[in-house]
Amino acid sequence: MPVKGVKSILMKNIFTYLSVLALVLAFNLSQAQEKENSVLEQQKELVIQEERSALKNEVEKINSRLENKEITLEESNTLKQDAAQKHALNIENRIAILENEFALSERNKAKVGYENETNSISIIGDGKILSIKFRKERPYDRRTTSDFVFAFGFNNVITQSETLDDSDFKIGGSRFAELGWAWKTRVFKNTNWLRVKYGISFQFNGLKPTENRIFVDEGKVTNLQDFPFKLKKSKFRNDNLVFPVHLEIGTSKKKEYDDYFRYSTKNHFKFGIGGYAGFNISTRQKLKFTEDGDKRKVKSKEDFNTNNLIYGVSTYLGWSNVGLYAKYDLNTIFNDNPLKQRNISLGVRFDMD
Length: 353
Hints:
There is one protein chain. The chain is an alpha+beta fold. It folds into two domains: 3-130, no CATH class; 144-352. Helices cover 28% and strands 46% of the residues. The chain has two helices and 16 strands. The strands form four sheets. An eight-stranded antiparallel beta barrel has the order 4-5-6-9-12-14-15-16. The chain has a three-stranded antiparallel β-sheet with strand order 1-2-3, covered by helices on one side. The chain is elongated.
């Protein structure tokens, strides 16, 4: 083939390749521009939503002041007009900033990356990094909060016609523990002196009999009886799942911020009174003793005729997140025992919110 023909074919192929390349580049640039414009519009809408939400919170605060007769109706209207103008200017200024930053990135062929399209933008260009952060919307008022509950202390039994001095169980060795989660709801809209506290808890009530005795199931009755071998340990435990409810009374501090407020009970006294109801989920007895020179461990997980339904009263008095705690089962420990016995506990409680 003549050299001229070869050159002609090569030129045609080169032009074809360049044409296709140009179309691909144009399409990619168009797609990138559309994506960038779409994200810009999303950020504009987010700005408008944030400022509207902030205006709404500010108006609620003004209405609250009007209801409490801290300001007049005329002053309320003036404050609302000022707030509306402020947030309108905020929208205008923030959108202008967004448009300018995007224009700057495009002009300097910057790379725009989005850490989270609803929360932040990172613009990288000309050797500099600019991050624009957007606040997540926060509730103006939160009437319900939650916390982790932990309690522990001494446990014993109130026996019919007897006092704790005559108890069949060791005062120091018998203990209880409680683990749970609680929610606290403010009763009134504009004050926090009264709250309802409710939740779910696991209670572990342990008893250690005095002398050398263990619990023995004798059909419908469960009694303490002497054990034939020297006991190193005798422990009886009820594990309960309960649902406590308390009315909580106490002072608190109102903390106000630009677009929300909260009540804090830190460094304040609180008093709670209420009760609980639930179910016995497990009963077990653990023994340690020596038999013919051999050390033995026996663990029994049985019914022991214990009550399946658990209910009682409880109260606590605390400062900040710690306090004294007492609870008393109104149900008897055992179903059909002629001698009525009820569990009682006293200890320390932590409400870690």
